[in-house]
């Protein structure tokens, strides 16, 4: 691969190489399914469930970014959505496909980095991200917002679950500049409500709040130290 920097994408790829966890990292992460990791359990995010229960979302065409083993994709399919779900980890997607077959859900899983997806312009009613965004380096937030605008229908929604600063499970409090000085995301960036509002200021806020804590035996996933947001495209 050429190491010339001739355009913005060349620059972003160089920065990616300094900070992004490779696909092999995530394959190793998902390989052992017996690990005691809360989001390995096959239950959807409590905030996602609440959006449907409160009528903020209705069934439509959905893209999930960083779907992991598919717990939210399965819930969305169960609600009658047409679901496409992408992840960089082949191990995670194999697990998700097994779950989908077992539950007889028709979900289109895509094994790609989200920035390499080739999707139809303004084709999604909802784009949902639970745990992908906070693993992106600061420069990729620019591309991320561009993709939301490109793929969401007018009036479509964007739902996000990400680390709060200093949470028990992650949430680096480094400044954006410090990320590059240290060449590390420290396990994932933490976001305040104020910062999320600045990043997604081109969207209309529907709801922003802390994730509700759920017990292990409940039908939803919910842990302390996470922000949940729902935005709407104009």
TrEMBL record:
Pfam families: Methyltransf_25. The keyword Transferase applies. GO terms for molecular function: methyltransferase activity. Residues 62-156 form the Methyltransferase domain. SUPFAM superfamilies: S-adenosyl-L-methionine-dependent methyltransferases. GO terms for biological process: methylation. InterPro entries: Methyltransf_25, SAM-dependent_MTases_sf. This is Methyltransferase domain-containing protein. It comes from Fictibacillus solisalsi.
């Amino acid at each position: 691969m050429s190491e010339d920097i001739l355009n913005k994408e060349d620059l972003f790829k160089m920065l990616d190489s300094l900070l992004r966890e490779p696909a092999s990292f995530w394959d190793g992460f998902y390989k052992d399914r017996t690990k005691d990791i809360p989001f390995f359990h096959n239950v959807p995010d409590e905030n996602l469930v609440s959006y449907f229960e409160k009528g903020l979302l209705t069934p439509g065409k959905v893209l999930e970014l960083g779907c992991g083993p598919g717990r939210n994709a399965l819930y969305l399919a169960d609600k009658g959505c047409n679901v496409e779900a992408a992840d960089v980890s082949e191990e995670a997607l194999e697990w998700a496909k097994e779950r989908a077959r077992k539950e007889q859900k028709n979900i289109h899983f895509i094994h790609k980095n989200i920035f390499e997806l080739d999707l139809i312009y303004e084709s999604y009613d909802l784009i949902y991200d639970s745990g992908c965004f906070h693993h992106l380096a600061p420069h990729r937030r620019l591309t991320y917002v561009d993709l939301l605008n490109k793929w969401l229908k007018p009036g479509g929604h964007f739902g996000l679950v990400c680390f709060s600063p200093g949470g028990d499970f992650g949430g680096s409090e480094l400044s954006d500049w410090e990320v590059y000085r240290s060449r590390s995301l420290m396990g994932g960036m933490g976001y305040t409500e104020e910062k999320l509002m600045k990043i997604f200021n081109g969207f209309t806020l529907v709801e922003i709040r802390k994730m509700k804590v759920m017990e292990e035996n409940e039908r939803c996933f919910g842990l302390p130290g996470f922000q949940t947001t729902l935005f709407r495209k104009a």
